[in-house]
Structure formats: structure tokens, C-alpha cells
Amino acid sequence: MPRAExxxxxxxxxxxxxxxxxYRAASMDxxxxxxxxxxxxxYLYLNSKEELFAACIRRxxxxxxxxVTAGVExxxxxxxxxxxxxxxxxxxxxxxxxxxxxxHRQARMHGEPFAAEVTKMREALVAYVTGLIGxxxxxxxxxxxxxxxxxxxxxxxxxxxxxxxxxGLAQALVGAAESLAAWANETPDVSPxxxxxxxxxxxxxxxxxxxxxxxxxxxxxxxxxxx
Amino acid sequence: MPRAExxxxxxxxxxxxxxxxxYRAASMDxxxxxxxxxxxxxYLYLNSKEELFAACIRRxxxxxxxxVTAGVExxxxxxxxxxxxxxxxxxxxxxxxxxxxxxHRQARMHGEPFAAEVTKMREALVAYVTGLIGxxxxxxxxxxxxxxxxxxxxxxxxxxxxxxxxxGLAQALVGAAESLAAWANETPDVSPxxxxxxxxxxxxxxxxxxxxxxxxxxxxxxxxxxx
Amino acid sequence: MPRAExxxxxxxxxxxxxxxxxYRAASMDxxxxxxxxxxxxxYLYLNSKEELFAACIRRxxxxxxxxVTAGVExxxxxxxxxxxxxxxxxxxxxxxxxxxxxxHRQARMHGEPFAAEVTKMREALVAYVTGLIGxxxxxxxxxxxxxxxxxxxxxxxxxxxxxxxxxGLAQALVGAAESLAAWANETPDVSPxxxxxxxxxxxxxxxxxxxxxxxxxxxxxxxxxxx
Amino acid sequence: MPRAExxxxxxxxxxxxxxxxxYRAASMDxxxxxxxxxxxxxYLYLNSKEELFAACIRRxxxxxxxxVTAGVExxxxxxxxxxxxxxxxxxxxxxxxxxxxxxHRQARMHGEPFAAEVTKMREALVAYVTGLIGxxxxxxxxxxxxxxxxxxxxxxxxxxxxxxxxxGLAQALVGAAESLAAWANETPDVSPxxxxxxxxxxxxxxxxxxxxxxxxxxxxxxxxxxx
DNA sequence: AATGAATGAGTATTCATTCAT
DNA sequence: AATGAATGAATACTCATTCAT
Lengths: 227, 227, 227, 227
Known about the structure:
4 copies of one chain form a homotetramer.
Chain A: H1 3-21, H2 28-35, H3 39-46, H4 49-70, H5 78-95, H6 97-106, H7 112-138, H8 151-157, H9 159-186, H10 192-211
Helix pairs in contact in A: 1-2, 1-4, 1-6, 4-5, 4-6, 4-7, 5-6, 5-7, 5-9, 5-10, 7-9, 9-10
The first copy, chain A, binds a DNA duplex (21 and 21 nucleotides) through helix 3.
């Protein structure tokens, strides 16, 4: 059996084991046995548990980003792009529950080498979403009420606040998506589209309002967006 | 030193250790040393690592629910209540990072005994939010267009779908909150209030729309909620 | 069984095992079994194979230096002191073959932490011998032909050369002693006194001649020391 | 690449690795990699780690004996011969530190197959030196006072004691040489000739005296050899 | 209320060695 | 003449847990 294939098998088994048991609880013995080879071969090809885990994270990370960005049409309206990306995201995590578990649950709880890789991926997604939101503000196809407002000027006017708003917002969106993905994996018969729809429903108006400068405030009841 | 006090010290140390290292990587040795007692005493009081972990989850779980519900005035408008609860949530997780880590990251990855406790807590919060949303539908101070719609009826009409919607929604909300909590902890000078505001802005309209039966759909551009 | 005693037992077993098998070939399992305890106890008390080995080296090193210096009378003539020290040295190594093997054979072949300790001890011995040789040069009881020569002046005259000569000489003496110790351990019925006598016979005249400025030279046949 | 050449490369790598790391710590992997071939080839040519080590010892052993005996002129005076041999010895060990390490440090600590080979070599050298000393007794150019004594007869008279004396003496000589070799390698600018000179100075008279039956004794101060 | 002494059962990692080609 | 693929057996080290006091 050629090395490349064996390595793939090993990574598959490792992703599965790490995803189910966690980094510490996963044993190299189990991984080797799942592949049907002896432990030394795993070490020969992948060097150490740590490197194996890192390799899993990297592979799953790249696969996820690839899946999400694959179907998106660059020219499309922002909400369309977001929709497509979300469906792809939920579809990928549904097909790859172990990989998703590795990224979402396991990788983040183990000090630096690992968390960094996930953070990198997460930042890529956040940046992508941030870009989308920014684009939304500038295009006619954005959420309804945005078109007739001078969003861009406002945006430029207090860029700092807006930047942080957008960052927080993107964090919230990605976090919501992550959480929904875990939920969708555990709940029977939740399709990627349904999960994506839930998130769009949940977040899209809020995004629009935010870009329009609408804010919910503590003191006064939320100032209505539509006079 | 009285037993109750010692037990509290032990749980403090355990929460801290479990939160930082994870269940598997945490060692009873470290916990005992942190308290400054010998290991047998820890076993005498708390029986086993597993029980200790379960106790930690229970305690932190209850503390979180208590913190979130503490400040809420039952009679207040729904958005006000949600706001108060979110601020309390972000404040508590910021002050209690280890406890939060135990609940959010560690507890869910270890077979039944543990995950169940967290699920229970999450359900309590979801039920609370669901109640708020239901109430919103019935009061005049809810998000704009909700009052003149027959939300409750709709909701009752197809309860199954709605239940799942609400569950997904709650997942999204909690996920967003979790993500924001992490972001707030990492980003300097983000106060609990700011995080809560971001989340309110992000989610409030979406919540209202959802309850109002408004949906973003793929085929047509989202039907505007407000003409 | 009190800890101190157990630790002593462990070190005894370790010295024996390291001495016989070498650092790498010695196994912690064997050491634990020799003591009649489980491996974890060895680790609990002595931390690691490396630290255990280092502790062995230190202990044996100190024991050897103590044995050698114990019987020496500071005021005695140099040859007498040397003789006493050598007998003690050979007696100690004969009673402690494993300890001597650890110091002489094992410690020196394993990179820094270990070799350093032995080097330190060796240097102490070399310095001691060097002192003796220096003293010899200044006292009337030195080897015969030294008394009527102006050794001290010569010594002061070309201090640099002399220093290096003495250093090399001490190295040779200690090396010879080490080698003889190993040989005495392997050969039946060689008493410490016999070994010491062999070395005295071998080296003493040479020492005397050297101090007297006599040199064997390549070009001319060795210039006779006694005209 | 012809087999003979490959074997030589392998032995070179092995000597180097064994010399630096020791028998146990040396790995066949490292040796193969150093040569730039695959492990199976090493096994094809040299069968096993044990045989490889034995082959190294044999080769280095023979090389050392050859080097030491090469320059010696059979007819020359004994001290001259010893001098030449010592210079060759120090030169060879200086140029061949790994080979010397294998012989001196590694070979002796591993059960029979290996130590025997080194013992054989050492015996060859001892016999050679013994021969030299015997010759010295018979020639006019020996150390001063030896010529007029009946050394040979004495020697024959109590052969047993003498044999052991000579053995011990050879041990001391070789030990001194070994120690000096190490010292010379560590100390800058100590040439083989200087090391050899130190040893000659140190030992030559002692050798002569020993053969002459002179002994240093404990009770009386050493009976002077030369009035 | 508290501990010093002790261990059974695992876990990652390494290495000499072989087989089929 | 040479190698890629593979492994049995060992080894250092850890950890939750108990017992006698």
C-alpha cells in the first residue's frame, strides 16, 4: 500500500478519533488499529501525536475553507453570497462531523500550536464575512432600507466605532454558525438549507439595521428603524 | 478547617484546572496541590475525578443561571429583560472564565454524565428566551411590526416547525453569545455592555421577525418586513 | 518504610544497575524490581532516569572523595599522603565496584549533565595530587635527589611550562589509578595495597625526577639524574 | 557502488556513531542515513547491530595496533622504541577520536563478545611493552642503573609475581596513556609528542626500577636506587 | 481533619529487524 | 546493488486511586 494512501487513511482515522474522544483521550493505539496497521508505522509517517493532531487540524481547516468558498460567486449580491456560503458550511460540517468536532471542540482547548491554526481559519471566515457586510453597505442590492441612506458616509464618518461593530458582528455570526452546525449534527433531519435559513433569518435584518446605523439602545426603547 | 470550606476550595481549584487543562489533562495531583492538601483528602470529600468534574459542572451551571436570572425584573418589557440577562451573562463569563470554559468547552466532549448537565442548563436558558419571545409577541412595546400580527396564533398553528425554529434560534443566540464572550475576553476594553449591545443589535430584529413569521427566502429577495 | 531509607535502597539498586548495564541499557523496571517496589514509587522519589543517574553520580562521587581524603594526615610527608590516598582509593573502589563503574565507565560517555559532575570530582583529585607534587618540591622528605637541588627556584623560573607539566602528570597519575582500579576489580586477589604499591613504584620516581627538572628527551638519551 | 567500498562507508559511519553515542544509544537508522543508504542494505552487508559493532571494534583495534607498531624500528634501543610507539599512539588517537572512543569507552561495557576483542588488543600492546622492558634489561643503553643488575634472573626466579607486576604496570601505563590522550584532545596545543614526553618522563624510570626489583615500600622510605 | 506510602493500568515513543520487490 | 513498507517488543513516564495511620 503506497505511503500517500496510508497517510490519508491515518489522518481519517485520527480525525475520527480526535473528534470523538478529544486530543488527550485519543490513543495512538486506537488510531493505528482503526487503520489496521501497527503503531510504529503511524509514527514513521506522522512523527508524533502532536504533529498528527496538527496535521488533522490543518487538513480539516483547509477543507472547510475550500468548501465554503467553492460555491460562492464573487459578483453576486451580498446576501446571496452569504446564503451560499452558509449552506456550503452547514453541508460540509454535516458530512464531516468528526472534522468539525476537531476544529470546533478539540483544537481550541489545547494551548498554542493547535489553537493558532483554528484561529487563522476563523479569522479568514470573519474577514470574509466582514467583507460581505462592507460590500452590502455599498451596493443597491443590500437589505431594503439601506439603499436610500447615506451609509457609506456614515461609515466613513466614524470608522473606528464601525470597525469594532463589524468585528463583533462577524464574531457573532460565525459563532452562531458554529453553534448551529453542532446542533444540526446532533439533531436528526436538519438540512444544511434549514440551518442556513435559520441563521439568515436570525441575523440578516440585524446586519442590515446595523449597517444602516440603527442601534438598539438601553435608555430609550429601540429607536424604530422605519419611521 | 471545616469540611464545607475545604470542599469549596477544592471545587475552586478543580474548576480552574479543568477549565485550563481540560478534563483529561487535569490531574488530581495538581488540584490537591493548588488547595494545599493531600490527595486522599480530595478523594475523601469528593470521591473521584468524575464526580468532582460533575460537581464542578453543576455548581458553575447553577451559578451561571443564577447570575443571568438574578437581575431581571419579571414585569419589565421583554427586550429590557433580554438586555439585562445578556449583560449579566457577559459579565459573569468575563469574571468567571474558568467556570465558563468548563461549561462551554470541557463538559460537552465527555460522554453522557457530563453533557447532560450542560444540556439541562442550556435548556433552561432557551426556555427563558423562548418565554421572552412569546411575551414580546403579546405586548405593545415589542419590535415594531409585531403587534399587529397574529403571532401567537401562527405559532400555535404549526407548533412543530416553530419549536424547531426556536431551538435553532436559541442555539444561534447562545453560539453568538459564546463567541462574543470569547471575543470580549480577548479584545481589550470591550465591556459586557458593549458585547450585549452588539448581540442585541445583531439579533433583536431577527428574533422579532422570526416570531412574526417573516422569513428570508432563497428564491426571492427577502420580503421586506417594513414597507 | 520511611522515604529516606527507600531512597537509599533505590540509589543502591540504581548504582548497581547503571554500573553493570550502562545508562541506556539500564531499565527503570529492573531498578524498581531490585528494590522490590513498583516503578511509580521510583519516579515519585527520584523524578526521572536522568535525575536518578545524576544523583547516583553525585553520591558516588562524594563518597569516593570522602574515602580518599578521610585517612590522609595533612601534615604527613607527600609520599606518605599519596600512599595513604591511593590505598584508600583502591580500597574504596574495590568495595564499591558498581559505584566506581558508574563514575569511571558510564558517566563519561553521556553528554553534559553527567560528565560534568565526574569532571568536577576528577579535577578535585587532580588538584589534590598537584598540591602534593608541589609540596614535595618544597620539603626535605621528598624523593631522594630533590633535597640538594634548587627546585623551588627552577619552578618559579619557568612556571608556565612547569604548570602544564604538572597538569599532564597529574592526569597521567589519576588515569593510571583509574585504570588500575578497574583492573584490580577484575583480577582476583589484588589487594588495595598491592595496587597502590604498583602505582607508587610506577610513578614515584618519575614524579621525583620531574620535579627535579629531569627530562627524558628524544634527541639525546635521557640525561642521567645522578652524575 | 562496489560492496567493499559501501562496507567501508558503513563502518566509518558506525564507528562515528558508536563513538559519539555509545552502543545502545546509537541507532541503525542514523548509521544508514549517514551513509545515505537504506537500512536493509546495512543489514544485508553487516547482518546485525552486534556484528557491526564487533566489526568496528576489530577494525579500529587492528588499525591502532598497526599505527603503534608501524613506525617502530625493531633494532632501536628500547626507550627509543617506546617513545616512537607512544607518539604514534597519541597521534592516532588524536586523529581518530571516534575509533578510540569505541575501543576505550564503549567496547568494555558490553558483555563478552566485545570486551574480548579489546582485551586481545590490549594484551598485544602489553606484550609489546613487556618485551621492550625485558630487552631494556639486556642492553647497555637502558636506564642507568639497570645494566649491572641481574634483572633477567630475578624475573625468571619469581615469574608469578613478576607477571602480575607487569600486568598491573601495563594497566597503569595504558590508563595513563588513555587519560593523557583525553587530556591532550581537550587541551589546546598539546601535541602528540608532548603527551608522549610527559608519559615517558612519568613512567620510564619507574619501569626501569621495577624491572630492577626496586620497590617503594610503605615502612621505610623508598630505598634509593642511586646512592 | 488529614496524610505518607504505595500501585495497576495505561500511553507515547523508539528500535532492531524482516519481507517482497 | 538496493529499497519501500511494515512490525514485535521494549521503555520512560503518568495518573487515578487506595490503605494504614
